[in-house]
Amino acid sequence: MYTLEQRLELAKSIAIKAGSIAQQHRDEGLNISSKSQQDFVTQADYAVEQFIQSELKKMCVEDGFLGEESGLEITSGGMWIVDPIDGTSNYIKGMDYWCISMAFVVDHQVQVAVIYAPDRNELFWASAAGGSYLNGAVQKLKPVPVDKAIVGLGLSSRRPLEGYLTVIQRLVNDGFEYRRFGAGALMLAHVASGQLDAYFEAHLNSWDGAAGLLLVSEAGGKCCDFLLGQGQYLGNPMLVANTQLYEQISTSIGFTLLPKAS
Ligand code: IPD
Ligand code: CA
Ligand code: CA
Ligand code: CA
């Protein structure tokens, strides 16, 4: 039986290899198909997920698996939640803002998290009560005043544009700056490292959010109950923030009024 420390080391090494596989596919040429409007998938998304799942299976036979591209395999043990490429549109365009995201969850609590952005040489990891790291350096958030705070936002075709525009309007009215870089998992990791001071998305799946959630909480940030404490893995609202900004941002965007996924 693997310990959490062993799982963390395993996930780091798998994520690094997965990053090379994704880069190699891009170098050799991508086959791009469309799931829905502005929502793409390539052969690399499938290949990377298949690689990660089979590597995990070799060492952690008893673990379950949930991946964006291949669905769910439940076992009686904990579960890996994987986004093989987060920010697929950026990846396709040759931008560097994309990552591989892996989380290990036990009883709906994230225990291990790894996010790797290969084109940026950024390897983020965290374990429950073990701290949050970027390339080996411990991450601890410091207070940021509102007039210097940047809130990361996410938008997908899964939610109407109207709500997103309202959120921008409210945040800007309340003195915040905002950014949208198009890879939710990596933006969450950048909250943990202080490049962003919060991240909000109205409808986020667990493979986008689970790893980043632990990175931020272990860095001392405040996080919503993203997995709702009961294993709701699809389409939840996500808010994480530098702790002293959380309530203000939550009030500004009306976070507590958002419907929970049913
Ligand atoms: C998407 C990105 C995007 C976020 C969406 C996700 P994908 O993931 O993280 O930034 O706003 O909700 O679906 O499809 O690039 O893995
Ligand atoms: Ca996708
Ligand atoms: Ca994603
Ligand atoms: Ca993805």
Automatic annotation (TrEMBL):
Entry-linked Pfam families: Inositol_P
Catalytic activity line of the entry: a myo-inositol phosphate + H2O = myo-inositol + phosphate
First-level EC class: hydrolase
Statement: the UniProt record of this protein carries the keyword Transcription regulation: yes
Gene Ontology annotations of biological process type: inositol metabolic process; phosphatidylinositol phosphate biosynthetic process; signal transduction; transcription antitermination
Residues bound to Mg(2+): 68, 83, 85-86, 208
EC number: 3.1.3.25
Record key words, sorted: Hydrolase, Magnesium, Metal-binding, Transcription, Transcription antitermination, Transcription regulation
Cofactor(s) needed for function: Mg(2+)
Record flagged with keyword Transcription: yes
Top-level taxon: Bacteria
Record-stated family: Belongs to the inositol monophosphatase superfamily.
Protein name: Inositol-1-monophosphatase
Organism encoding this protein: Alginatibacterium sediminis
Classification of source organism: Bacteria, Pseudomonadati, Pseudomonadota, Gammaproteobacteria, Alteromonadales
